[in-house]
Design brief:
The complex is a heterodimer of chains A (359) and B (108). Chain A has 359 residues and is of the alpha/beta class. Helices cover 40% and strands 21% of the residues of chain A. In chain A, helix 1 runs parallel beside helix 2 and helix 4 packs parallel to helix 6. Chain B has a single domain, classed as TATA-Binding Protein (2-Layer Sandwich). Chain B is built from 3 helices and 3 strands, in the order βαββαα. Chain B has a 3-stranded antiparallel β-sheet with strand order 1-3-2. In chain B, helix 1 packs across helix 2. The longest helix of chain B has 25 residues. Chain B is elongated, with a radius of gyration of 17 Å. The N and C termini of chain B lie far apart (54 Å). Classes of the chains: A alpha/beta (359), B alpha+beta (108). Chain A: It is an enzyme of class 2 (transferase).
Chain lengths: 359, 108
């Protein structure tokens, strides 16, 4: 049967490219790509591997976590969705980009499910998953997308069936900068280091510490800022004073770091908006949960007569439903991933994907 | 019994993993053979075979050859972790198992 004519289409999606294992079940109805098509989240469950303060998550331990939690999470996703195996049309999994061992651990489980249930597999690009979920949840029409997470920092705009990268980090992701800075201050990784930096930053603001501002045209760089922030953290711990001769706190450091990196992101996003002639910004990825970033982006967008779209933590933090959704969109255009080709890859450019489901 | 072990890959190990039926052995084979070995100093061969005197290919056979014992150990341990995951998925999420607990929920 032609999948695009089937009234109810259901996909199970599995995500594990970093320390979050997510499984979701999505329902699509109506003509794919038409105004009458709908997407409904039937279930979206997640479990995060949290490493101790002062440490980051390593591939081997993360993969072990995903293997340990996959079955119980999949069972919960099925139970909450209330779907039968027969109702499911395809199994979607994250091909990449991300960390090798964690990606593969989830792919092995997804393959097994597909084989046991007699379903086809769909390999999904993690970034495209974020973008499609952001579009679906917010209804943003033609936004410039800022995709910011622990692993990725890209400014993206859609053109002719590709999500084109207009600007990106030249070294590390902004979320990686924040996460690694958190280790320097032994900030807790529970629920996420970035979240705890955000809360701490709210208590800062007495002084804006001097950090390098590194925007390079459409791109930006964060590794130098991280080095300087780590130096300041060491300076603070050694009893050093701030620029005004007064001691400064971890909260001041968090505040200063956020203000600096977020201003950089706003600048490169605005540059892309001017280039493309868009007034809308869609922020996706874990760092997109940050309310200060949303506020700063909102001020810039408002100045241009536009607005910011963002999703809540269910969807901006890595999750399985975005993989199910993007995967099902591809599946509806006839995209399939044969089992023998269902590998994973640490590098997978956003613009490598042919976005056949959009005109 | 090693047939043509390359001189540079002297460390070898063969595992025969029995499954309840040929279908499950085949599922395990197909799920586990996709990913390449990470090291070029490790060679892996996966297949299904029948038990002595039987016709159904219910056994997953994996043959590992590696340059050093350490590499062999790392590769085999990694394989076993993936195998354990495959088996857990089979135990809890095969369609008949899912139907059984979904049926139970409806009745109960």
């Amino acid at each position: 049967m032609d999948i695009s004519t089937k009234k109810r289409r259901i996909a199970l999606g599995c995500e594990g490219s970093a320390n979050k294992l997510g499984i979701g079940v999505i329902l699509h109805t109506g003509d794919p790509g038409s105004a009458s098509s709908t997407s409904t989240v039937l279930s979206n469950v997640r479990h995060t591997f949290v490493s101790p303060p002062g440490t980051g998550f390593l591939p081997k331990d993360t993969a072990q976590h995903h293997r340990a939690f996959f079955v119980r999470l999949a069972r919960r996703a099925l139970a909450e969705a209330g779907v039968r195996v027969a109702d499911i049309d395809c199994i979607c999994y994250t091909r990449g980009p991300g960390m090798g061992a964690p990606l593969t651990s989830v792919a092995v489980a997804a393959r097994t499910l597909a084989l046991l249930w007699g379903k086809e597999l769909v390999a999904v690009n993690h970034c495209v998953g974020h973008i499609e979920m952001g579009r679906a949840i917010t209804g943003a029409d033609h936004p410039v997308v800022l995709y910011v997470s622990g692993g990725n920092t890209q400014v993206i705009a859609y053109a002719e069936q590709r999500y084109r990268i207009f600007g990106e980090t030249l070294d590390i992701a902004v979320g990686n900068c924040l996460d690694r800075f958190a280790r320097a201050l032994q900030i807790s990784n529970d629920p996420a280091p970035g979240y705890n930096i955000e809360q701490l930053a709210k208590q800062g603001g007495r002084v804006l510490l001097d950090l390098p501002y590194a925007v390079k045209g459409m791109d930006c760089s964060f590794s130098g800022i991280l080095t300087r922030a780590e130096e300041l953290a060491a300076h603070m711990k050694a009893g050093g004073k701030g620029p005004d001769g007064e001691p400064f706190t971890a909260a001041d450091l968090c505040f200063s770091l956020q203000e600096t990196v977020f201003a950089m992101l706003v600048e490169i996003t605005e540059r892309a908006m001017a280039h493309v002639g868009s007034t809308q910004v869609l922020i996706v990825g874990g760092v997109g949960c940050n309310e200060r970033l949303q506020e700063m982006m909102g001020a810039m967008a408002a100045d241009r007569g536009g607005s910011v779209y963002a999703t809540d933590e269910r969807f901006c933090i890595d999750n399985g439903i975005m993989i199910a959704h993007a995967g099902l969109l591809a599946y509806e255009t006839g995209f399939r991933t044969p089992i023998e080709e269902s590998t994973c890859t640490q590098r997978f450019r956003t613009d490598e994907v042919l976005v056949k489901w959009r005109r | 019994m090693p047939t043509d072990v390359p001189v540079e890959f002297p460390c070898a190990l063969t595992l025969n993993v029995p499954f309840p039926d040929a279908r499950l052995a085949s599922v395990a084979l197909q799920a586990l053979r996709v990913d390449k070995e990470l090291s070029s100093l490790v060679v892996r061969d996966l297949s299904t075979i029948a038990e002595e005197g039987l016709s159904e290919q219910t056994v997953l056979r994996v043959e590992y050859k590696a340059a050093t014992n350490r590499m062999l150990r790392v590769a085999v341990n990694s394989f076993l972790e993936s195998l354990a995951l495959v088996m857990e998925v089979m135990e809890v999420l095969d369609h008949d198992v899912v139907e059984a607990w979904q049926g139970q929920e409806e009745r109960g």
